Each structure stands twice: as C-alpha cells, then as structure tokens.
C-alpha cells in the first residue's frame, strides 16, 4: 500500500504485527469478514434489498415516455406527408385503387432521404413555385 522505502510502511507493518499477536486481528476478521447467518431466525421479516420488482414504476415511466415519443414522431411524419401531398394524385385515381396508391406514395415518402442541412427547414415544392 505504501511506496518502497516509505517510513510509514514500517510503522504500519509493526501495528499489524501487534494486532496479530494479541489476537485482535482475528477478532476483527471474525466480526466483519466471516459470513454468518442472521441472528434472527424469523422468516416473516421483509427485506429492504432491491430487486427487479422494486423498479416497476421506473419501467412504467420509461414505457409511457417511449410510446409517447414514438406517437409524436409518427404524427409529425403523417402531418408532413399530408402537407406535401395535399393535392390529389391523378395517377392514383387512374389505377382504380386509391388506397394502394396512397400507401405507395406514403412508403416512398418514408423512403426519401432528407437532403437538407441540419437547422434548415426542408424545401417544399408546390405547383411550379418553389419555396424555401
């Protein structure tokens, strides 16, 4: 515990040797370091140890926060999609199945890579006029 040739090392070693010779070191070892059973043999005493059930409230809070964040994110995506696709697509009606056409447009919208720089608003293109 001490550097080589430290004057404290000799004093410390002498103190440990004195405790060992008097039996005090063994008494300290038996008191603090041996694993003995509980003095009370009663089994109805509740333990104050933490286990998995102790944290159910934190798990519930995390689950609620995660579901809420996912819902907000999904609603923002839907709002952005509806703002960018507010005009009906003629090709979807020509196919005869507007639901599958809407679903294809939504999936292609999700697949698009956002090429705007961080901090900038994404550009919106509408009927010939480009706004930033």
TrEMBL record:
Alphabetical UniProt keywords: Membrane, Transmembrane, Transmembrane helix
Residues annotated as transmembrane: 55-75
Span list, region Disordered: 113-132
Biased composition (Polar residues): 123-132
InterPro entries: Ionotropic_Glu_rcpt (IPR015683)
Stated name of the protein: Solute-binding protein family 3/N-terminal domain-containing protein
